[in-house]
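Hi L.,

You mentioned the student needs an example of a multi-chain input paired with its predicted structure. This one should do, with 614 residues in total across all chains.
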Amino acid sequence: MEAEREQTSQDEKETPILEVRNMTKRFGATLALDNVSLELQRGEVLALLGDNGAGKSTLIKCLSGVHQPDEGRIFLEGEEVTLNSPMEARDLGMETVYQDLSLFDNMNVVGNFYAGREPVTPRWLGGWGWVRDGFMSSKAKESLESLQVNLPSAEVEIGLMSGGQRQAVASARAMSFGRKIVILDEPTSALGARESSNVLRLIKEAPEHGVSVIVISHNLEHVIQVCHRAVVLRQGVRVGEAEPTEENHERLVSMIVGGAAEEGKGEKQA
Amino acid sequence: MSAFMERITGSQSPLSSERSLRWSLALIRLGPAIILLLLIMAFNVLSPVFLTVQNVSNIVVQTSALAVLAIGQLFVILVAGIDLSVGSVLALSTVIGALVFTWNQGLGGSLSVAAFLLTGLVTGFLNGFMLTKGRLPHAFIPTLAMFYAASGLALVLSNGRAIPHVPGIVITLGSGYIGPLPVPVLLVAGLALVAVVLTKRLKWGRWIYLVGGDKEAARRVGIPVDRVILSVFLISGLMAGFAGVITAGRTASGYPTAGELAELQAIAAVIIGGGSFFGGRGSVAGVLVGALILGVIANGLNLLNVDEYWQLIVAGGIIVFAVELDVLRRYLEGRFRTLQARGD
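Structure written out for the whole complex:
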């Protein structure tokens, strides 16, 4: 693919970091995903586009271990994996940020960063171990700094933060722990213009931190700004892909809503 | 852009009002301690004996069983639950503890002490089990059922009468002294210390706050939510057992109607001490302050010869005031968020 040429070195180009082959998922009589295949290259920011009910959410829930696909295979760095729970996906280095962000208002930024995986000492005590607050705090601040997320203070409770700050914290958390892949569900839908630009910058710079990204978004302008490639789903079927550029804007829209016959040929023109 | 908005809406500059919001929030956090201080100052003015060593010692001893119950209740309220059963469980533990001692007086009565605590643990487990595995809609239901059942069982086992047999160790724990220090107060201090470590320092305690903050998010980040919920009911039950030891030690008997209304007092202590019914907020120190506020009101009004029933009315007023503070906190936090959104 041309789009990620700059980000991908020659030898890694052969195996995509993530590959989905022929995934199908049914909910009763509804066919939510119909034989969908998808590949995410190393260092790529991939947009997943589609109208409501197109199957985007189902697809990422299958990739984050929330749902299990009825058919199809998932390959991570060329090796087949099964994702039976969100924990398994996380352990494999895949983090997902849902629209509700899974943040805790009563905790500060550091507490949220490590929520559920607080490092303890001694480690064998598990849940009864002593939480390493100092370590957590310095590590979280380090991560936020390297991702250039500016917050008034990492000690402030999340409940006191704006929507943009919250999204930034959730995304930064995912990028710090998602060693390989971060999936973002509508990261800018609840944000104003200025807040969006911070989050978009975070997404755009993710590959520099060794993270490949899948973004679900309804906002084509944002997709054009940060994504290398866009895959379009409609009614559970992959209908095409294209490089998100201003020139391809109209084509992407018609693929999403189901217009003319350029389906499946998007990449050829890019 | 934002400066322009402020000019046309005429609001303050964001910095100065952000600072005043921070101050107000800090003040709300100190609310319970301020209330306690004001009460102490007022009673000190009104009664010459209030701040004597003897009277202060009375207050803390009389408050110790309530303080222990309230520490247990805090854990449940932290996960946005409630435990209505602790008063009845306290009574049941005194009855079972006393009965075990009448059957077996060996081992210095330690079997009896174990029976007190085990009663609490078993009932606490049942509460948590019914809630999580029985999928009951709210903690109110299983603990209300336990409130009745434990009370009934205590009456059945004791034939409704006091059982005046408790081991010496229980009497020591409830009313003994080590030097000038009352043992029940030392027991409260010890339990409070353990609770502080658990809530502030241990991972499990952190998870209790996370479950209280957002149950769904907690599940998503991999916290075993059901086991956390079960554990807080175990803790609350165990604390009811300890409170039973203190109560039986003070009255030298097992008594089936001990701890009447104690569950409501414990809930009141948590709420007055800054615990939030919405879950995820509250501290052991706050709860101790809340229990002391109730103890000081009872003792102070007593000294002033105010009718006992007025205590209830004052306590009611303070509960409403404390919860209004919590509501105000949420409102101010919302304002703060809006400011942040405009500022960043």
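You could point out the following to them. Chain A touches chain B at residues 86-87, 90, 98, 100-107, 111, 115-118, 120, 126-131, 150, 152, 159-165, 192, 194-195, 198 (CB under 8 Å). The mean pLDDT of chain A is 86.

Best wishes,
N.
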